[in-house]
Amino acid sequence: MFKALLVEKNDEGKTSASVQDISEDQLPEGNVTVAVEYSTVNYKDGLCIGPGGGLVRTYPHVPGIDFAGTVETSDDDRYKPGDKVVLTGWRVGENRWGGYAEKARVSADMLVPLPEGLTTRQAMAVGTAGLTAMLAVMALEDRGLKDGPLLVTGAAGGVGSVATAILANLGHEVAAVTGRPEQEDYLKSLGATQIVAREELTEVTRKPLEAELWGGCVDAVAGAMLGRVLKQMKYGASVAAIGLAGGAAIEGALITPFILRGVNLLGIDSVMQPYQNRVRAWGRIAKDLPMDKLEAMVQTATLSDLPGLGKDILKGQVKGRVVVDVT
Ligand code: NDP
């Protein structure tokens, strides 16, 4: 038997999450069983710990879209007992059981070896949020960053914090958008040199273009903010769109930034990202994300803290990254 956060659904359709003992034969199909050491909390985890947000199909369910740990058994040549591994994405923790348990069983295709230079704890301090931040940075670099400050929206959140730290460490000037003025010192400690109040970018306007301000942007918010940001991009600059914390639509967006300024909107998906690019991104994280900055973003939690943290992240109240010590 081992411990897991189990989400159950009652006859009225109401879900509840609690730490329970479960047995190994309850684990899903898969050719690698991992002794999970650490997991984390992403926005999607908040949905899956709660009513599911349409992501979870069957109950009881073990959420946790990320985990890192040690291979216990493997029927796949690529992994052997004792190997350290990381899992993010592939809808693990959504349509199959995930990392909020002392053991997880998955397909070897879903794993990556623990990147050299990182511990399992650090890998989960990064998690899907950090991997996505790095994928966004890589997409901006591949497309060609322009001069001038780079904007990060939802900056005090998970993706935003890691994106801020990476871009600043690479020598870029970073402007961080936040709705939490009390996080100004935190964002500056990650390397932001300019703080932009969320309210400055939430009014929907019908202006076709605004002053050219930003040489690139990592956007975790979408909604009215992305509509405004697109109009403020410098000629030929790119926005890496990673999230929808402020709404699924791009409000007030017009075609003008694309056809008059050659602005690019780059979509970033971490879930189905091919293996080679995941490995490349993890390698860049180990190299370009300063570990002291990562540590400054982290709060530690246990399985029993997760129901509360799930609610907090849905309200945008979690600062930086959470590491869940599963054991
Ligand atoms: P967090 O909750 O940690 O961060 C989101 C941040 O957005 C908040 O901290 C807050 O930052 C800001 N925010 C929240 N609500 C609003 C609002 N109504 N208007 C404006 N800003 C708001 O989440 P994550 O960083 O983990 O994820 C961010 C987004 O990215 C989510 O939508 C998530 O689903 C998505 N995502 C997408 C991935 C992909 O593969 N594309 C992978 C991972 C996440 P502040 O307080 O600083 O304003």
From TrEMBL:
InterPro entries: Acrylyl-CoA_reductase_AcuI, ADH-like_C, ADH-like_N, ER, GroES-like_sf, NAD(P)-bd_dom_sf, Zn-ADH-like_protein. Residues 14-324 form the Enoyl reductase (ER) domain. GO terms for molecular function: acryloyl-CoA reductase (NADPH) activity. It comes from the Bacteria. Pfam families: ADH_N, ADH_zinc_N. SMART domains: PKS_ER (SM00829). NCBIfam families: oxido_YhdH. This is Acrylyl-CoA reductase (NADPH). It comes from Primorskyibacter flagellatus. The lineage of its organism: Bacteria, Pseudomonadati, Pseudomonadota, Alphaproteobacteria, Rhodobacterales.
